[in-house]
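Example record

The entry below shows one chain as it appears in the dataset: sequence first, then structure tokens.
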Amino acid sequence: MPKIFMYTKNRALRLLFLTIHTELTELQFLHQHLTVDTFDDEAKVRDDIRRAHKLADMVIVCPHWGTEYVYESTSYQDQWTNVFLEEGVDVVLGTHPHVIEPVKEFTRESDGHKMVVYYSLGNFVSNQDEIPRMIGGMAKLTLYKKGDNASIKSYEFEPVVTHKRYGYKEITTYKLSDYTPELASQNKILSDPTCSVSYTHLTLP
């Protein structure tokens, strides 16, 4: 039976994170063996989500899914989105494509339960050189609990940009809103002749 790790703050709101991968089944972190669910066992994923609901107020799933460098969700992601919605997941934080994919809100018809899906947050920090892979984002959520009921009050996407100079120690991340023309002019990515200093405005659908 895999270990499940939960985040709590003053025991007021209990958040439980589940990670789902395409192939990886076990990893070691801080001398602990952690078991990670895989997409090839839907029954086990559903069972772990149900276990999570018994332990926490809200369940957040972090799937490693999608197709690299593709900007829209695939049918495979859509299929699993339906599974997560059926099981009452609250938030999905997707990774793997290395580029930003849509953010969408879903409502379960049976009871009105809402789920927010960030299909891909892109690269938070990256040593890749292609322009779209220099932009990523952070999920910004306001979570609300009253009595025994917890829900998402609001959600946003905070764009970030990888700032590269020369050498691994010179790679860092800025919020796009804080990224000035002066900083942009110093980014190594400008060595790509197709790149120019410009601002990108990203909004949720």
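Notes for this example: DSSP finds three helices and twelve strands in the chain. Residues 65 and 91 are 15 Å apart (CA to CA).
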